[in-house]
């Protein structure tokens, strides 16, 4: 699969889906198109799943959008099922960022979040290209209620998100870039560690999704 985005462009890709940039249909546009059976709406509906798939591929593959011979291979989406755990887990740490205790805490937070909200948070910690990549889509049964959180410091910012459509309607559009900017920047994770950036992001996400209409989504606290 050749549509893989760099981490920097991934956030822009995600934000474009809820209004920050142009180029990808927004949720409101989808609802309007489904209500109006005209050629444009039919085209939009037909391509909706493709757009979601491309965006997810960017989150999982973390390829480069740069041109040049050195980056030709990096544009190919990674798909390595052999790197998946043998048993189901919402946290896959192929990079070794997390201690066993930290991973247990994250699994517990994720389970509590899913119980309280119905939203599924899934974490993949990796160092591209050492990643199961697209194989996690089926492993986790990724759907429109799923957040795929890819922690990869390869290109600078460590935090990358692919957010399901149903979650977009309840979360402020700039929340994900705020979390990424605060906890994913290189200064933060190099000083405090990759694991600290991951845990801080999960805490912020849990608070926001539990009370999406509160300041938990608009004000990211350290």
Structural features, described:
With 222 residues, the protein is α/β, with parallel strands linked by helices. 46% of the residues lie in helices and 9% in strands. It is built from nine helices and four strands, in the order H-H-H-E-H-E-H-E-E-H-H-H-H. It has a four-stranded mixed sheet, sandwiched between helices. Strand 3 and strand 4 form a beta hairpin.
Task: Give a brief description.
This protein is of the alpha/beta class. The protein has helices at 7-16, 27-35, 39-61, 100-117, 136-140, 165-168, 175-183, 186-192, 194-210; strands at 91-93, 120-125, 146-151, 159-163. Helix 2 (27-35) packs antiparallel against helix 3, helix 4 packs parallel to helix 9 and helix 8 (186-192) crosses helix 9 (194-210).
Query: Helical element count?
Result: 9
Tell me the distance between the termini: 38 Å
Mean pLDDT: 74
What share of residues is helical? 40-55%
Structural class: alpha/beta
Walk across the major sheet and give the strand order: 1-2-3-4
Structure keywords:
222 residues, alpha/beta, 4-stranded mixed β-sheet, 46% helix, 9% strand
Walk me through the topology.
Layout: H1 7-16, H2 27-35, H3 39-61, E1 91-93, H4 100-117, E2 120-125, H5 136-140, E3 146-151, E4 159-163, H6 165-168, H7 175-183, H8 186-192, H9 194-210
Parallel strand pairs: 1-2, 2-3
Antiparallel strand pairs: 3-4
């Amino acid at each position: 699969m050749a549509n893989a985005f760099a981490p920097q462009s991934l956030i822009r890709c995600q934000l474009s889906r809820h209004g920050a940039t142009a180029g990808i249909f927004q949720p409101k546009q989808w609802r309007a198109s489904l209500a109006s059976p005209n050629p444009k709406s039919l085209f939009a509906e037909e391509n909706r799943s493709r757009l979601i798939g491309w965006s997810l591929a960017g989150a999982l593959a973390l390829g480069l959008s740069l041109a040049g011979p050195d980056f030709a291979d990096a544009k190919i989406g990674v798909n390595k099922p052999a790197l998946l755990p043998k048993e189901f887990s919402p946290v896959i740490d192929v990079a070794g960022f997390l201690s066993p205790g930290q991973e247990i805490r994250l699994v517990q937070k994720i389970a509590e979040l899913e119980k309280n909200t119905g939203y599924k948070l899934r974490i993949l910690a990796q160092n591209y290209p050492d990643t199961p990549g697209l194989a996690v889509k089926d492993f986790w049964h990724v759907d429109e209620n799923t957040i795929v959180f890819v922690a990869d410091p390869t290109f600078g910012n460590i935090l990358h998100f692919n957010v399901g459509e149903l979650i977009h309607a309840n979360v402020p559009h700039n929340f994900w870039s705020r979390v990424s900017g605060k906890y994913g920047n290189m200064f933060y994770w190099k000083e405090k560690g990759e694991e600290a950036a991951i845990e801080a992001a999960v805490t912020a996400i849990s608070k926001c999704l539990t009370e999406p209409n509160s300041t938990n989504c608009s004000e990211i606290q350290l």
